[in-house]
Please model this.
Amino acid sequence: MKIIKAKDYKDMSRKAANIISAQVIMKPESVLGLATGSTPIGTYAQLVEWYQKGDLDFSGVTTVNLDEYKGLTRDNDQSYYYFMNDHLFSKVNIDKSRTFLPDGTEADSDKACADYNRVIASVGGVDLQLLGLGHNGHIGFNEPNDIFEAETHCVNLTESTVKANQRFFASMDDVPKQAYTMGIKTIMQAKKILVVVSGEDKAAIVKEAFFGPVTPKVQASILQFHKDVIVVADEAALSLI
Ligand code: GLP
Model:
């Protein structure tokens, strides 16, 4: 595991975007595993800026996202589909037909997960997987558990996650209670993994996940066993290391 220290959020975003750019330049047909959350927003903004300058070409790139809320339609501004279009896909020359997320509108969880596993298999493996880190160590929506779930599965969101999301919705009933997420085995099969972390509020979980014991209680700790992980974190997130 390589840890790259960034000065602040902006520097973290630039360094992460540099790594993704290098991947796309070295292999224009790359399969990128992408993440949502507030942390990668600056990374996507930087990639868009470099695309606009003519330094990047996404025409050969395929993407598979980590997760999606169950029950949200694509035009819902809280869906991860909407997020990805808003922050990246609509702003670069990527072929939209090669951008994949789990289908949140599929009510049959088994079908949604099996379909997404097939999508992941069909793209031939992820070259570079981008990850954020949840405060409880979750990656994607792999929440603290007694086991590491292997493949795509339906997750019951923890009460704290549902509560935290309440502010984005008109009423509690509208807040999604479940999500579809890629599993840990799939994430671990990516050739290269890039984790972005920012802020003092993540310092404790950075220490636990990357310097503590490997346990499904802290799902990100499994990344210690991956052969090519780069963590780009700002000084605040690394303040306990
Ligand atoms: C959500 C996403 C994760 C993300 C996490 C952290 O739960 N499903 O993929 O990494 O939030 O979000 P943030 O970057 O906003 O701290």
In short: The domain at 2-234 is CATH 3.40.50.1360 (Rossmann fold). The chain has one domain: 2-234. The CA atoms of residues 66 and 140 lie 5 Å apart. Strands lie at 2-6, 31-34, 62-65, 67-69, 99-100, 128-131, 153-156, 178-181, 192-197, 229-234.
